Give the backbone structure.
Amino acid sequence: TGIISILILATVMDVIVPWVVKMSSLFELFFVNNVGLPFNTGTVVYFVLLVGVLIWGVRYSIRKKKVLLNTIVLAFIFILIGYSSFFVLIIRANAGVPINENNPEEAISMLSYLNREQYGNWPLLHGAYYNAPLIEQNDGAPVYFKDKKKGKYTIVGHRLENVYDPRFTSVFPRMWSDREQRHIDSYKQYVKGTPIRVTKSDGTTEVRMKPTFMDNVNFFLSYQIGHMYIRYFMWNFAGRQNDIESQGGPMKGNWISGINFIDNIHVGNLENLPDAFKNEATNKFYLLPLILGFIGAFFHFLRSHKDTWVVFLLFIMTGLAIVVYLNQYPYQPRERDYAFAGSFYAFAIWIGMGVLAISEMISKYAGNKKIIPIVVTGICLVLVPGIMGNEGWDDHDRSGKYAARDFAKNYMGNLAPNAVIYSVGDNDTFPLWYIQEVEGFRTDTRVVNYMLSSGEWYVLQLGKKAYDADPLPFSISPEKYDKGQNQVIPYYPVQFRDIEGAIELESIIDFIKSDDSRTQLPLRSGEMINFFPSKKVKITVDSAACVDNGIVPRELAHLIVPEITWEIKQNELYKNDLAFLDFMASNNWERPVYFTNPAVVEKVFGADEYIHLEGAAYRFMPIKASDYNDFIVGILIDQSYDILMNKTQWGNLNADGVLIDRESTRNIGIASQNFMRVSRALIRIGEKEKAKKLVDRNFDLFPTSKIPIDYFALPFVEVYFKADAVKEANDLSKLILERYIQEVNYYLTLDEGWEKTYDYDLNQAFAIIQRISQIAKEYNQEDLSKQVDEFILAKLEELKN
């Protein structure tokens, strides 16, 4: 039954659902491309035929009394009814709403959505390791585009299928991702490997260490199962150390039980764990839910092993089976415990049965059998859900917290009218979308997710009006942003109109969008692709337009430069890079441009010295930052001071009882950096009192009693000293010192087996303590300096011994 159930599940997921949609897309292609009928005709015909066949099947099976056929047809109908909820996506996409990811507006794009093609492919049963040499790329499935001008679906390219050196492939490959260097570095920790000599594309050879199958299995067991499933499972039923994300290591994000001798073996001595590694997410369940669940599972198996297998299948298919399917690489962008919630629900069934098991066991030996179930249930309620609720409430309580909304308003609230703000990823963008979509806040501004603009559907949406914000002006036609068009534009240096030095960005864009064969490069396949001829770029500034359109405040007009020059730092432009540069060339100094983080465009728009911090957002202006070398970007000092002191809200995070979770901690770090940069700028221009007030404001909003102090606070110490706030500087120094003294003392009390694990952390803690000593000496704080030096000497002597 279990095997049949898995086969049925695979049939539903891999055959019925995709092929129902695939057949719809095939009908659509035939009726539109071959017959010449309007878009969606094939889809309508297909579903009319499908419904007709199903109705006929039901009537035929009843009339002929074919029970099995009737059951199969009805089961198929109910599956389709269940999946019909996906029509909402198509209806919504065709409504043209402002937030419309992937735009699944018809059968062909819906099939792409269901197949999760936007996430790429990863190997499951067979594939290549992360360091496999790429031999060639073959054309795979065609990519279709809905060409409204031609009234048909055109093939704009093919999905590439990579062919790798077969010596570096394996069944069940777990170490496969070469997307980032840190993935590769993490894999290498597990590889003993087999050396194999390979020939590189330039004809030279090198030796690569191919992972052995046991290396592969070791990564699967220790990281994918141990770190990415069992750890999450134990969070729920044993206890949790804290919510600090990690890739391993005994101080961050492990499971714990609250039973010292078990935890000491597992993660080292927790009694002296530094305060910085304790937070609301420290939960101790003392293994009680886990034990009760095991009792329940054993009891369930003894009573009805068939029922047990049903629950066990639910447990496995929503837990370990997902681990196998996802094939997760290291350094996931966030903790993934939510992916396995179904597995935890299944185990909770056995926890419930554990109460019944204990009740029945005690009833065998007790006199009053009627009262036993009540007593056992009461005790179990207190010891399991009672303890779990008590321990887990504080790190799940979101009452009084408005951080996501307020941080979004801090970005958007002080933008110039009709502005465009570029965000980076989901965490930056979704709060901005929320306050526009739900609260109607600053609907005159346009939010652009830089990462999403690598998709043609998103670039096309940017060319349409959203809320009260006008479309982005692009000079490149929508057709040239379509699927398969201008995916990658390589750099190929040529002499451009006898121009030496930087070339006008508008001319570069005109070159890229030209259909002239002289502006294109031939590929081996015979296809012609666009390229860009120069990395040295400039934009000529229209100073009057900058002032008239609010790009530059009138009082700063005298600082406007005649042109901005920079150098593109990469050898290719991707679609999102092209869309950004196209907008910058076509904007004609009409709309102010901001960034949540200017690093997102630094490789293609290396104009950092013209980007200025203004409160929470970064404003692009044709004014060179006088403090560029010191602060990476410029700072609008007066505006930023006013915004940070008077015009921002911070989600009530300083209030008692309001949770500061991991994501809020990340955003607090970003905000504190802005407070630090502006306060340092104020010191530089002699505004000591304002600098002190701004630092005070930072620690009022983000109190050290709720947010662990760290080395990022060291610049605040120097600001206090330079602002003549000696007491505040010393107090803050002592808080930082206390944190890292705790760490050093903790590391030195650990058993010998943990020493290497903490080498880096121990050295870092000593370096920070030493830096405090240097600052104290620099500002003539002899008592503090002496205290620090004595501690360092004592601990170094302890290490030597």
Remarks:
- The longest helix spans residues 2-34.
- The radius of gyration is 31 Å.
- The longest strand covers residues 134-147.
- The CA atoms of residues 591 and 640 lie 21 Å apart.
